[in-house]
């Protein structure tokens, strides 16, 4: 099963990804996580991405496409994967299409988290506070100022993917404002419906 989770920052993609990983045994490929790891490790990609991420902008397509292309080659991604935070531009979506076509693979669904953007700022503030309370480092881009830029990047560059995938018939909207457990249940039903029925 190969799926994309689409939605603005704070929509619940990461939370639901973790649950899908547990239920369906496919890995979560989060470009945000991969880029943060590259920044922490000080790799050339990390050095290139660091200031862009801190300002809330998008890392260049070719950089992100490169890391995803490498990641989908890994053994654990062979039976499927959840793409979380990728693609984020139409150019990335086209690169993904080409990448999968080359391997004879296809996407099964693009899950779009529908959310009320006004509620997201509060969610992000809550995420930052909970992370700090656990004694973990808070993401530098989870401040209200940077969050605004991230939301703007979503509106202008990522939201057009909704139309892009609607045309393919793969788009499945879910109510991202519903309680976490309800979203999980909805996704569970949706994803079980995508799985091939075993004989
Ligand atoms: P996320 O963890 O998905 O919120 O991503 C955090 C930051 O990483 C974003 O604000 C971007 O700067 C960068 N990033 C993550 N995924 C992508 C992507 N697919 N394309 C460009 N930049 C990305």
Helical amount:
55-70%
Number of domains: 1
Q: From the 3D structure, determine the CATH topology.
A: Rossmann fold
Structural class: alpha/beta
Uncertain ranges? none
Number of helices: 9
The fourth-level CATH homologous superfamily is P-loop containing nucleotide triphosphate hydrolases
> Strand order within the widest sheet?
2-3-1-4-5
Order of helices and strands: EHEHHHEHEHHHEH
* Biggest β-sheet description: 5 strands, parallel
Task: Tell me what portion of residues adopts beta-strand conformation.
Answer: 5-15%
Mean pLDDT: 94
The molecules bound to the chains, other than polymers, are: adenosine monophosphate
Total strands: the figure is: 5
What spatial form do the alpha-carbon principal axes imply?
globular
End-to-end Cα distance = 18 Å
Q: Do you know the CATH architecture?
A: 3-Layer(aba) Sandwich
Radius of gyration using CA atoms only: 16 Å
CATH class: Alpha Beta
Protein described:
This protein has 199 residues and is α/β, with parallel strands linked by helices. The protein has one domain: Rossmann fold. Helices cover 58% and strands 12% of the residues. Helix 2 crosses helix 3 (44-55). The longest helix is centred in the middle third of the chain and has 17 residues, at 117-133. The mean pLDDT is 94. The chain binds adenosine monophosphate.
